[in-house]
Amino acid sequence: MIYAVLHALSKPIFKIFFRLSAYGIENIPKEGGAIIAPNHQSFLDIPIVGSAMPRKMYTLGKKEFIESKKGGWFYRSMGGIPIDRNSVDLGGLKLSINVLKQGNLLLLFPEGTRSTNGRVGHIRKGAIFLSYKALVPIVPVGLAGIEKALPKDARFPKPVHIVITFGKPIKLWELFNPGEVSFYDKSATYIREEIEKCIEMSRKRL
């Protein structure tokens, strides 16, 4: 209920304030699980991507926030999945796989952290691992303009144009052999290239 209300409110607000433009919405699976994999540049990334989604999406979040007695209920109602970032959280990984297998969308930043130079950083194994284990595609996403909307030291967002482009779903196990040692490296390179293509398309539309 809370997610539906905030999603309905955020969509027109972001369209007016940021002139938010979204392309490739048709590439988001209408049903079944999928990992939504955008570049990461701002604290605005999650709400901006979420507002453009035609379906509810789940997100990974810090365990201490989502399991908090004070505000944890809000994060959980918004689709937050608790994960301990200081260790290999098997519980969080299993929960993520179950969410995907149940046919839900999961937003996951493949870089694992925000970029400080506007470039796509090193792609970690997390998204690739979850995609293969749950047998769901990865949808590459490219955001442009968002780094100017809320710079690192800014206190308030600026009304600049933001463009988001969703690429075609990728089934890595159909492109590369999961049995080979090079599977993760090849997959990481491919995902990074596809995200960069989406970013470039978004930049051209600014």
How would you describe what is shown here?
The protein has helices at residues 2-17, 45-52, 63-66, 72-77, 90-101, 126-134, 146-149, 172-175, 183-204, and strands at residues 21-23, 34-38, 57-62, 80-83, 105-107, 138-144, 163-166. With 206 residues, the chain is α/β, with parallel strands linked by helices. Helix 1 (2-17) crosses helix 2 (45-52) and helix 5 (90-101) packs across helix 6. Helices cover 41% and strands 16% of the residues. The longest helix is centred in the C-terminal third of the chain and has 22 residues, at 183-204.
Kindly list the characteristics that best describe this protein.
206 residues; alpha/beta; 16% strand; single chain; seven-stranded mixed sheet; 9 helices
Helices, strands, pairings?
Layout: H1 2-17, E1 21-23, E2 34-38, H2 45-52, E3 57-62, H3 63-66, H4 72-77, E4 80-83, H5 90-101, E5 105-107, H6 126-134, E6 138-144, H7 146-149, E7 163-166, H8 172-175, H9 183-204
Helix pairs in contact: 1-2, 5-6
Q: TL;DR of this structure?
A:
With about 210 residues, the protein is α/β, with parallel strands linked by helices. It has helices spanning about 1-15, 45-50, 65, 70-75, 90-100, 125-135, 145-150, 170-175, 185-205, and strands spanning about 20-25, 35-40, 55-60, 80-85, 105, 140-145, 165. The model has no long low-confidence stretch (mean pLDDT about 90).
